[in-house]
Amino acid sequence: MTYPSGGETLYQKEQYSIYWTSQDIGNYVKIELCKNGYTYYTIATSTHDDGFYQWQIPTSVSGSNYYIKITSIQYKYISNTSGTFDIKPQYITVTSPSSSSILYGGKTYTIKWSADIYASNVAIYCELGDDSFLISSSTPNDGSYAWIVATSLSSSPSYKIKVSSATNSDIYDYSPYFRINERLIDVYTPASGDILRIGKTYTISWEGGVSDSYVDIYLEINDNLQYIDQAYNDGSYSWTVSENYHTSSSNRIVIYSISDSSNYDYSGTFTIRRETISIT
Hints:
The strands form six sheets. Strands 1, 3, 4, 6, 7 and 8 form a six-stranded mixed β-sheet that branches. Strands 10, 12, 13, 15, 16 and 17 form a six-stranded mixed β-sheet that branches. The chain has strands spanning 9-11, 15-19, 28-35, 38-48, 52-56, 63-72, 79-81, 85-88, 91-96, 102-104, 108-116, 121-128, 131-140, 144-148, 156-165, 172-174, 178-181, 186-189, 195-197, 201-207, 214-221, 224-232, 236-240, 248-257, 264-266, 270-273. It is 0% helix and 57% strand. Strand 15 and strand 16 (172-174) form a beta hairpin. The radius of gyration is 32 Å and the shape is rod-shaped. By secondary structure, it is mainly beta.
């Protein structure tokens, strides 16, 4: 016996080549999977003595201390065995997205999974009903993948992620159903570093990202939210900085979808100051 030689870990549903050498034992051999001195099952009742046999391990076999036994059909007293090896099941478990996930076109999210498989790489797909599109044909089986959600995907609560072995499509798992919405709110101004003066009027601008007719606008001052207004979702709002605001260098505008509180975005961090007069 040259393979398995002993000490290997083999996986269910994978194909392996059993190799051996022989001389003057007849034209045919029997191949058996054995454990603890007993035949667990017969791999081949009679196959040519050509030194090679392709074996796919069934899911019914799992555990340790297995070995291969090859016996001459013509001379039944002539046989040899391999060293012992382990057989393990393969699994993939997709952990993210979850059933509560809401993803948005154009944004990047992490697909996560755990796996114990023979292959070094996995393939990843996104499915909606009978439609499936490839995310990656082969990426390292390291448990995570950064996925940019295509903006062409329509809104639906019935998407699934499929992660499979890159070399064996019989080994796979699905995520739960999750939602993809077409776009996310993007706040453009005020921008980081802007200085806004109390009493002056400025334009808050954003990309709508939702089908709602209105959005809610807040001012965040040192991590505290203050409501500004509910504005028409046309991407622009004229805002007069109130006299009630204190000067601060840690301010952001936050815009929320009124129908989906998970759909929101922040502006850059800006400063609020009072007008100053310089006497020269």
